[in-house]
Amino acid sequence: MDWSMEVNGGSSKEMPGFLTRVWQGIISIFAMVKSCFRGFFERVWKLGKDDPRRVVHSLKVGLALTLVSLFYFMRPLYDGVGGMAIWAVMTVVVVFEYSVGATLSKGLNRGFATLLAGSLAVGVHELASLSGDKSEPIILGISVFLQATVFTFLRFFPTIKTRYDYGAMIFILTFSLVSVSGYRVDKLLEMAHQRLSTILIGSALCVLVSMLVCPVWAGEDLHNLIAKNLDKLAASVEGVVAENFKEGEGEEEGEINEENPSVLGYKCVLNSKPTEEALANFARWEPAHGPFGFRHPWKQYLKIGMAARYCAYSLEALNACTNSDSQAAQELTQHLKAVCTKVGHVSSDLLLDLSSTVKKMTTSSHTDLLVAQLNIAVQELQLALKILSNPLPVHVSIPDIVLIATVASLTVEISARVEDVAEAVEELSRIAHFKTETAEENKQKAATIKALADSDGPHVAIHVDSL
Q1: H/E element holding 287?
Q2: What does 331-389 look like in DSSP terms, one character per residue?
Q3: CA distance between the termini of the chain
Q4: pLDDT digits (tens, 9 = 90+) for 416-458
Q5: Helices 218-244 & 398-431 angle (0-180, nearest 10)
Q6: Segment among 111-120, 354-363, 383-392 with least mean pLDDT
Q7: Cis omega before residue 297 (within 30°)?
Q8: How many CB atoms lie within 10 A of CB 65?
Q9: pTM summary value
Q10: At what angle do helices 398-431 and 367-388 cross, to 10 degrees?
Q11: pLDDT tens-place string over residues 298-339
């Protein structure tokens, strides 16, 4: 009896501690769940805040699905399409994309592919049915094999892969479904007609909602992306050149400050090729909108992007060049600092002018002047190299010479790539018939360029006697 009381008494004493631990565990679980939900909603809020068009797109998809569901909710509409109304719902789900061009691309591909494949499948079925019951499945099987083989191989062609890959896939799917299911269906023509009608209804509804409710144009996004990349490249050109000749201020000498956004801006240009190609492909499907007329030269934007990436490649190489620890190399670098910095400065000004041309879709009267200034700056850099190398200081080593020559040649290469960008933008302005700048805009740009030219000062004299 005493032993049982001691046990019960011990248990009663331990129970409060046990309950406390349980309660603390429950509280920690609730805190963890709360933290997870809070982090999730913060990410959702940030995603919508960064681009509110994403929220609008989600609402548009919900609206399109609600409208297409009326074919099930309303008896007259359901009787008109029969049990095939589900194909309209499926079409909205797979066709509705973020931009108008992407939605049009998928919708037209799906509609035409369904029409062609359905018509061909019905024709093959009728031909097979005339050959007799024994030969019919053989003919249908051979036709499915041939069309699947041919159109799958065609999907490897670059042009078809880029623009019509989805249509080729839908063609294979529709032909196979109609051919195979038609073998056991008596009213094949009626079934094909209903399926085609519902798919066309779903595609048309997607296109209408995408174009009429807060449209997102792929062409406009491509236009803005190219202009933004030129701005980033302009900041990077001046930043990388300046950082390469910068004396150590709290950092190791010769170390590029990669925390500087202006230095890393060119990396966005290097990584933008897939986005540019996708936007250009979708932009070709879009009708005329805003300042972009019919048959706008979207391919030319890809040429500008390619020229900008070539410039970014040179910046990547220059960014990888670090100054030598040799005192002689540092002295040589300091003598080239002024001319190289000037090349980077003028190159940056030219890229900013080109970005303004693309943004405003107006031809600039100062582009030629900036190109001439860039050529003069490059000639000064080449002259400085000749002065430094004739004769070379005795205490300068071969690695130092290679380093300085590499930095100077990459700077000249960057200026050449910038001129390629200028030629691509000039061709775009000619093909797209950009407007001419107004007198006020010309006056403002002239004042800006004059101030920049005055800030450069007189040409820097290069002296090597001290070396």
Answers
A1: none
A2: HHHHHHHHHHHHHHHHHHHHHHHHHHHHHHTEE-SSHHHHHHHHHHHHHHHHHHHHHHT
A3: 105
A4: 999 999 999 999 999 988 888 665 656 665 565 555 445 444 4
A5: 160
A6: 383-392
A7: no
A8: 18
A9: 0.80
A10: 170
A11: 999 999 999 999 999 988 888 877 544 544 456 666 677 888
Integer Cα distance of 13 and 22 in angstroms: 16
User: HEC profile for 85-147?
Assistant: HHHHHHHHHHHCCCCHHHHHHHHHHHHHHHHHHHHHHHHHHHHHHHCCCCCHHHHHHHHHHHH
Best CA proximity match to 205, nearest among 377, 90, 78: 90
Cα 464 from Cα 225, distance rounded (Å):
45
Distance in angstroms (rounded) separating the CA atoms of residues 251 and 253: 6
Q: Is 292 helix (H, G, I), strand (E, B) or coil?
A: strand
Dist CA 74 CA 68 (whole Å): 11
SS3 sequence of 409-441: HHHHHHHHHHHHHHHHHHHHHHHCCCEECCHHH
User: Which of 305, 304, 298, 301 lies closest to 268 in space, CA to CA?
Assistant: 305
- Tokens 């681009």 sit on residue: 51
Instruction: Choose among 317, 307, 375, 318: nearest CA to 347.
Output: 375
> What are the pLDDT digits (tens) for 62-95?
999 999 888 777 767 666 666 677 888 889 999 9
Q: What percent of the chain has pLDDT over 70?
A: 77
Residues near 404 by beta carbon (within 8 Å), at least 6 away in sequence: 329, 332, 333, 336, 388
Name every residue whose Cβ is closer than 8 Å to that of residue 355 and which is 6 or more positions away in sequence. Answer: 227, 228, 230, 231, 234
| Total residues belonging to the chain | 467
CB atoms near residue 125 (< 10 Å): 23
User: Could you give the residue ranges of the DSSP H alpha helices within 245-326?
Assistant: 261-270, 273-283, 298-320
CB neighbours (10 Å) of residue 309? 21
Alpha-carbon torsion, ordered 394, 395, 398, 402, to 10 deg: -100
Tokens found for residue 117: 């494949």
- List the one residue out of 317, 324, 283, 319 whose CA is nearest residue 301: 283
CA distance 54 to 251: 42
**The amino acid at 217:** W
Helix 136-154 vs helix 100-130: angle between axes, to the nearest 10 degrees?
150
Q: Which residues contact 191 (CB under 8 A, 6 or more apart)?
A: 84, 178, 181, 182, 185
Q: What are phi and psi of 98, to 5 degrees?
A: -70, -45
Phi–psi pair at 394, nearest 5 degrees: -65, -35
